[in-house]
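Quick note —
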Amino acid sequence: MKLKELDTMLEKQRTICYKKDGNSITYHNKNMRLVEGCVYCSEPVVESQWNSYCMIYVRYPEQKIAMEFGTLNADYSTEEVIGIVKKNGIETQDTFINFIKRKIEMQDHVQLIWIEYLKYICPTLIDDCWESRKACMKKREQIRQERNAKREAEDKAFLEERQAETEKLIAAAYETIRNGGTLENSDIIFYKSRYESRTYKIVNYLFRQHDINCPIKTQGWINDKLIHVTVTPEGLVNVRFWKSKNGKCSEKVFDCLSELVRIVRAENSQED
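Predicted structure written out below.
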């Protein structure tokens, strides 16, 4: 039988519940009906035409107080619900106590609602439960810090690797400008973090580095059309670019490239 098909009598029970904030405990009188043994459920709450759920409660025969367990789909069978409660180890008062003791032994998280219920079942375990919560929080914080440290190390290695690749491309570009060769108009990427970066065409980047006044239109042509630049040992430049219908080579780009070659070679001569 499904939860939504149950027709056992509704009973009003004093119940330990979480407040809406999910972090503090309160008591309410809740209407519930018996599922089996110590397991009860609320009336189905309809969320949509296709979905409804029931709040599940646990109340042991030895106690007058019930405890919220959690919500389950109202289409679950009673056998499935009982199986879930048993899987959590709280189907009887004795199994609940043993369940809590295992949590304490493992220094695991003990929910507030369980601690509150222990006031009526086994109050001698309460102090150990709080200590277990503290130990669990400490372990979780340590794991969090270790994960953060690992992620930071990975991010640092990533940035250093990418920075080295960028510097290698720039160094190769200067070598070509100084001695002649072909300079591919590659993308170079500068990473501020793994998830934040800026990308430039290397020719436009070099113009900016040397304060060469390249018009915006020419910069756009370099981004969209320029494939590579050939520099002769004498310092003459030629370009290869993607051609389109009625498309022309930028004339200004030759002035900018020639100035770049002149500046870089002059700086190289000064260093020598």
